[in-house]
Structures are given as C-alpha cells and as structure tokens.
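As described in the Methods, two query proteins were run sequentially through the folding procedure within a single session, without resetting any intermediate state between them. The first query and its resulting structure tokens are shown here.
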Amino acid sequence: MVKSRRIMPAHPWKLLAAVVALTILAPGLAMLLVGCGSGETEATPTPAAVLPTDTPVPTRAEPAPPPAEAEKAASLIDDFESSDFDGRWWPFTDDNTVSFTCTPDQPGHTGQQAMRLTFEVGAGSWPGCGMDVDPGLWGDAGGLSFFWRADRAGLEAFVILSIKDPTQAHPDSQGFTPFQVALQTPGEEWTPVALAWDDFAKADWVGESGTSLLDPTRVVELLFQVNEAQSGSIWVDDLQLVTGPVTAPGPAAPEPTVPPAPLPSESGIDKWSLWADGTQLRGANIWQRVVVPWVDGDEFLGDDHVGPPFVQKDLDRLAAMGANYVNVSGPGLFTEKPPYVPDEAVQAHLDNLLDMIARADMFAVITARTGPGRSDFTFYWNESADWGDASLLNDDVWLKQDAQDAWVEMWRYTAEHYRDNPVVVGYDLMCEPNAPGRLLEIWNGEDFYPAYAGTLYDWNQLYPRIVQAIREVDPDTPILISAMGWGSVRWLPFLEPVDDPRTVYMVHQYEPQDQYTHQPYPASNSYPGSFDLNWDGAPDVFDRAWLDGYLSIIDDFKARYGVPVAVNEFGVMRWSPGAADFMRDSMDLFEQRGMNHAFWAWNPSWPPYSHVDGMNYLRGPDPDDHTDLATSDLIDVITQTWGRNAIQPSNAAD
C-alpha cells in the first residue's frame, strides 16, 4: 500500500552538526511432526520461505549490559520476525521514483528477518518506508536504536519522526512536522546506530512553520527514507526504543571458545551422573532434516542444506522458559545413499546448532534420525504416494549389511568429532528403530523375535557394534539406546542391554496414541476420561493410574538390569482435551522414576514453518490459531516442571 500523503518534498543532503557516532562491528564466526515418527504419519510439508542458518555473530566491541539490564533498557519497536509486515510498514514514492520496494528479507541481524529497502531513484525523488506508532509508548524513551547494513557503503538515508501538528502550515506538509537525522550507510556488515531525541532536527524544507520541539509523546510516524539520485539496498533490524543512556546497541554475544573436552576427572563434569542420579535434564526436541527442494519448496525449511532454520533467539527462548536440555533429532553425519561418506554440510550445520545451544547454556543429545540406508521419510512412509519419487523412502539399513556397517562407522566418526564438546551429554544411536512395523508389519516383540532374532531386521544385533565403535574413540560420553517398535514402552522388555557401564535406555511415550495423544481435531477423548483403550469395544478408565500402570514396564526393566531409563520423546496434540493435565501427570510420573525427559517439540521462529504446530505448546487449543500465547495451562505446567532444573553447563563443575 502506498500512502501518497507521506511523500516528502526535496530534502537537501546535509549531515547534522551533531554527528551520530556509529560503532562498526566485524562479524565473527559464525508437518505435523510426531516425534521421530511413532509409527504415525506426518503432514506433507507445503512449500513455503528461505533462511540461511549461519547468521553472522558480531564480535563484541564493547561490553554489553547484562541481559536483565538490556531487556530493561530497551523496548522493541520491530524485529521484523512476525507476519503481517505489510500491515505495519507502508512504502511511499513519487513520480521520480524509478523503483522502490520495502519488504522483509533474510537473514536478519540476530533473527531470521530484517526489513530491506531496495531502490533506484532519480533526482528530486525521496521514497521510503514508514510505520504508524503509538506515541503513548514513547514518553519514557530517550531515543531509538537499530542495526543496519547495505550492499555498499555511502548510501544516503534519513530517519524521520513525524509529529501531527495543527500549527504546521506548509502546503506540502499535510499537517505533519518532520524531524530527521541524515546518515550514510556502512558496508555489508551489521552496524549499530543509536539516536537520541536531540540528534533529530526539524526538517529545513518546512521553514519556520510548525513546532520546533520534538516531543516524543506526539510522534505518530517513523520513517526510513532514501536520498535522491542513487540506487542500492539497505537492511534494517532490531529497531527499538532506548529508555536508558542512548548508546549504540550491544552486539550479539560472541561465539564461545569451547575448551578441550576434559574427562570428568579433569573438569569435575561427570556426564554420566546427569543420567544416573535422578531427573536432572528437562527440555525439548528440535527436528531437523536435509532439505529436498522439490518437495519442500523454496521456503518451508529454508534454503540451507538442513532445515528448518534455528537462530540463537530460538534457543535462548527455550532456556529462558527453564529448559536445560535439547534433544537434537536430525540427520546423521553420513550420507543416506552409497557411497556412505561424511556429509560435510550436515556436520557444519550441527556444529553451528550445538554452538547456539552452548551459548544458551543448555546440554544437548545428538539423535541420528537418518544415516546410511535410512531417510527421514521412513517416519511418514505411508504418504510416499504424495511425493512423486519412491526413492525418497530408504530403509536399506534393515536390508543391507553394508548399510549397517556404515552406520557403525558413522557413529565412530561422530563420537570422535564430538567427544570433546562439553555440552554434548549423549549419543542417541538411532531415532525409533522401526524394522518390524515398517517392513514386516509386525507390531509386537512376541511375534517378531521368534522369527527374526539375529537377522538384519534385529536392532539387538546392530547396536552393540555401534557401542563398541564409539567406545574405541570416546570412553566417556553416555550412549542412549531406544527399543524397536519406534521406541515405544511396550517394546522395552525386548531390548537386550549391552555390556557398557555408561549406557542409558530410552523410550518414546505417546500412548494411548490413536485414542488420545494423536487425535485429529476435533478431539473427542479427554484426560482423564473413559474410552476403549485395549480394542475390545468396552470403555476403560484413562487417568493417572492407567499411565502409572503402563510405565511399570519401565520399572520392571530397571529392576531387572539395574540401568537408567529416560524419555527423550513424549507429548500430545495441543487440542486434546485435558492436555495440560496429561503432561503434568506424565512428567510427574517420569520424575518419580528418576527419568530425564524431553517433549516433542520445540519449533523455530522461522515463519514459513509456523503452521507445523500440532505439538507446539506455546499455542492454544485452536488448530487454526498459529500465534504464541503469553500464558496457558500447558505453558504453566511445563515451566513449573522445568523450574526444577538446577544444573547447566555453566555450573556443572561447581
């Protein structure tokens, strides 16, 4: 939408006497998904919008205020992450504008998006992009700040604040008195700008007419305007009011230097104790997959090799809610098809993700969803007809010896690479081993093992080889092993523990899956409730006692083998009646058994992925409402439980 009344007449290019100091910062290093699958289907991704995952992380030039102070000192105007950009920002042009666009663009400074102004303007043309503001929010502020960059240095632009002024009589003003700052862009690196109200001067072109005092409580428009006779692109991000001293905003935290990964005897951090000494890790899963452009489109999972894109603030938000543990459920480090070799792009992506988790002060488990002879599409195999290419579905790991041999080597390689990473506290060897159900249509261990024990279909003959390979290069990091049957509790008794003193056994708990946790909307069964749970046609009581009884399978396994068990996936559709009570009772019962737990799933803020939110507990029970809530019963249950977390990487050695 073009609001032509905001077109400004000619602005002479004049740098103000009050020079605005800029600190230039050099960049540093920087479906409806149901867990790993749980035997369920996922909605086929709909093409949707793009983000490189390697957002530059500026090197700190000056100490930034502590997070609490920084949050107190600034009030966000726009970080350009939310939808409805066109509802907030409007372009203005004139007859001498050759071309001008004002759009969201990727990547942003600290997030996924920024505002981009791209322009070609002739002499006597001053296009720009503006937003209406609520002056009632500006009274306590002393100025504003933002980050910006450009495709080249030296482009000329204005930041303009417009006051609705009944005393303004200039014929071109249409009742507005503008106050402006003239700036020149930096180059391609994100640069902070801080502008105090005193830096703004009344625009010369309105002459003496109108007020000469910039009163922030009367500002009704904020505009970014480019100067005449130039072309290029300018990006703006993290626009905020500053209520403390007006200084350039602090850069993002520098990428941490990860110390050599000491063994427990050297550092005091015993990763094994995090699993063996009661519930100490509480958090969430994040899902990652190698992008298939012709399936995913150009936007849905971003344009990097792996998606959907996570950025630092996604992990920071998870930690701020109280989590101390991220289960990274993503592609393994070897290719899915022969020759089975390291996928360097997957490895670089995981390195970056682990760095962000470390900066958020959380621990991580690496879960291999895919690897030699296994694609992520195994988790939604019954939708293969929709993909148009049956080759996407790859389950050769259960059919070919060379694929299993390569899976062993993949984990040897992975452990050698991450053994020195202090936040990596577990290797989950395979997400939801699923040969019986996927390839044989066998749904319980009693039917599977008499016929197939010791064959390539049998996880019990493969995973001990992986454990041995890992221990040849990494004697310390705990190893996590799920049972077959998509890791379900009822398959746990058929898992044969390996002779390794630092192995944890895993379950995924979604039962009763068909009748409750994965009900389509509108859901009819509630928790607690009464409905058929054992397929005999008669109603059964579904409540905490039922859950406790079902989890007694875990009690028997622990008593028999004397090993720890954890739950690295569980959850319920957010629209299921009683979902908050189900989550509360589930987590309480896990903790009674001393089990660490991570729910499915924590989503990124990447907008094209926002509708994949059946188990996004920041949202309410309406499946058509894709907005985050400030609070809800589900959120309260989760934060109360996560509030018990007492250990993070930063204090683990204390």
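Immediately afterward, the second query was submitted; its sequence and tokens are:
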Amino acid sequence: MAAATNVKPLKPETETDAEVKATILLVDDDELLRHSIGRVVRRAGFNLLLASDGEEALEILRNEHVDVIVADHYMPSMSGLQLLTVARLGWPNTVRILLTGHADQSVAIQAINRGEVYRLLQKPCDPAQLTFMLGYAVARAEQLGLAAAA
C-alpha cells in the first residue's frame, strides 16, 4: 500500500497553538463522579474547571473563559438544566452538555428547548464516548466564537 503524500501531521503548527487548550467546566454534586470524569477530561488534553453546584459554576463562568459546560441534571438547589438555561443566556457561545442518569423524554425536550444543549449524555458515560463528544463540542464552540466575532 502506497503512503499518502498529502497527509499533514496531527500536531500544532506553532508553539502558541500547543499552549491553547479548550476549557471544560464540569458541574456535578457527586464528588467521586466529578473527579473520575475530570480525569478523563484531563487525559484528553483539556483544561478542566470543577464546580459542585450551579451557583459555583455561574461564579466560574463570570470569571473564566469556558468553551464547554458539562452539567449533571439532578443536583440540589439548581438543576443542570436550570444552569444550562442561564448559561445559554449569559454565555451563548459556550457549548452546553447535560449529563443524566435518569433520562426521559420530557428532560430531553426541555434540554433542547430551554437550555439549547448540544448533547444529552447518559451516566455512566463511556470515557471514549465522552472524549469524542467533547472534541465535537469544542469544535462547535470555536464555530460559535467565530460567528460572534464576524
């Protein structure tokens, strides 16, 4: 089999590109789950911010650039769907993913209509699937950022 001559290496073009990583905000009230998913996110090469509830997540959003929010649906005081709805209004270029262990049709409909979520993922989430989905979500965040700048 002949080698392709137009194949570009999968590496950053400049040193600056190597330093720029997408930032993922992971919001879950379950500390063990937050840290296990966090390990997957870090291993995939993303910057990671952690929050244990919606209020903490909003504070992070006010102070940090976030490309993608991954929020658990069922949390005390503010659900993931409520958080993502607020995030949609305040940070529309941040891509939103909702995690849930109890997905039903009404949650999915609300997630799409109110939170305009990019994806709804069921827990437990396969690490490879999560990494794959985060890659697509970051690409979507980049598209949104370019569209807003135009």
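Helices lie at 15-19, 31-43, 54-63, 80-90, 105-113, 127-149. We note this only descriptively and draw no conclusion about the first query from it.
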